[in-house]
Design a protein that fits this description.
Blueprint (H helix, E strand, L loop, with lengths): L17 H23 L4 E10 L2 E6 L2 E6 L12 E5 L6 E7 L10 E3 L12 H16 L1 H7 L6 E5 L6 H11 L3 E6 H7 L4 H14 L3 E6 L2 H4 L8 H18 L7 E7 L17 E4 L5 H12 L10 H7 L5 H17 L7 H28 L4
Parallel strand pairs: 7-10, 7-11, 8-9, 9-10
Antiparallel strand pairs: 1-2, 1-4, 2-3, 4-5, 6-8
Length: 382
Amino acid sequence: MSYETNDVNGIKIRDLSVEEENELLRDSLRELQEELEKFRRPPLLVSSVVDVISPDKVIVRLNSGDFCVNVSRDLVGKLEPEDRVLLEQRSLTVLEKIGKSKYFDVSKFVIIERPKVKWEDIGGLDEQIRELQEVIEMPLVYPEKFKKIGIEPPKGVLLYGPPGTGKTLLAKAVASNSNATFIEVVGSELVQKFIGEGAKFVKSIFELAREKAPSIIFIDEIDAIAAKRIEVGTSGEREVQRTFMQLLAEIDGFKPLGNVKIIGATNRLDILDPAIVRPGRLDRLIYVPKPDEKGRKEIFRIHTKKMNLAKDVDFEKLAEISEGLSGAEIKAVCTEAGYFALRKNRVSVKMDDFIKAIEKVRREEEKKKKDKAYLAMYGEII
């Protein structure tokens, strides 16, 4: 079959012989067959090499656990720990090496932000604010002053005290006033989510902090990975210790005048390993207590500045009757007082609303304590 040029319509059609047309059809058939073969092939598993047993046997890690598997002939003697590999699904034989597994995409597992908390948003913690300004803010904003005077500021600080007293708020405020990136990670989640990978994750966090510098790494519940070391028992305990040792190594690796700082926070200073608070690490300890009467008054003013208050609201009285409440609990009181006003269809919050709110928050805290004590006593039996 052939086609001739159609000069009448001004369209040129290239002559094709029967052989040329058949060749095009054969090429199309081969492409379709190759594409069909791709659909027939089973998918391969992606894994990482944990250890090399012999040239033709390695241990790989999958979500369901670790497996000792064979290596294909082409890869014998060529695999190392941390290599990323493709596995055949049924036999788990290693078929192909696809690079190294060195880094986590830590941005998926940590909170990275530029906080907008100002010092004036924090009440009753003037001494703690002053210490954070000296230890964290000034070295980040004015490093040349420390070089001129010839002293080295601490690499980080440890905030400790009861829950709800403003430790996280202080860390965010110092990051905001230093114009630093705030990288937040919770120690307990680090242990739970990254069993087997904790040390690598810690290393990646510090690498991310250097990339985002100036930055502040905030480790909440640091006692989850930095508790006093005991005799190594389960694999989980060994993993926690490996994570802790990596954390110490990363802190030691920082230059004192570097533009990355570490802030740890804990409610349990008594169980921390002395290694984390020795000189050269988190050696500046800042106690964050529950607010005194003056502090409670400041906190009430901060959390009610956008509220429509009735004339009978007395901050002196509120500070007096809220003794023992933390900053977080006072914030909860203000929210509850607003709800009491809403239930009465009022647009302003009265003193009586605050009194009822304080009583409600106290009752809820007492209930939490009783529930916690009950679980501590009977939880194992249940």
